[in-house]
Design a protein that fits this description.
two-stranded parallel ribbon; elongated; mainly alpha; 5 helices
């Protein structure tokens, strides 16, 4: 489990279809159909690989494009820098938290 799995983000940035476990902490990749779920157990991983291999070329391409768009929109340097600035402004100035901050 990673806070931010760089290998997965790099793969998606290169339009590669991905297999991710829930522990990767990228639920948005599943929501936009950029990844297939794959738990880190031999049988589950084997089944996920089979699902991936059974996808058509068009489906794998669509998955890769969705991943690339996700990385560009949510995890690119300009996006992360803007969020960091927004977070610091909120911490220092108060007001409503940014939309990406989850408060319990």
């Amino acid at each position: 489990s990673e806070g931010l799995p760089m290998a997965a983000l790099e793969a998606m940035a290169h339009r590669l279809p991905c297999l991710l476990s829930a522990a990767c902490n990228l639920p948005e990749a599943f929501r936009v159909m950029a990844a297939l779920p794959a738990e880190p157990e031999p049988a589950a991983l084997s089944a996920a690989l089979e699902r991936c291999f059974e996808l058509s070329h068009a489906d794998r391409t669509a998955m890769g494009c969705a991943g690339q768009a996700l990385v560009r929109e949510r995890f690119s340097w300009p996006q992360v820098a803007a969020q960091t600035r927004e977070l610091y402004s909120w911490v220092l100035g108060g007001g409503l938290p940014p939309a990406f901050v989850e408060l319990d």
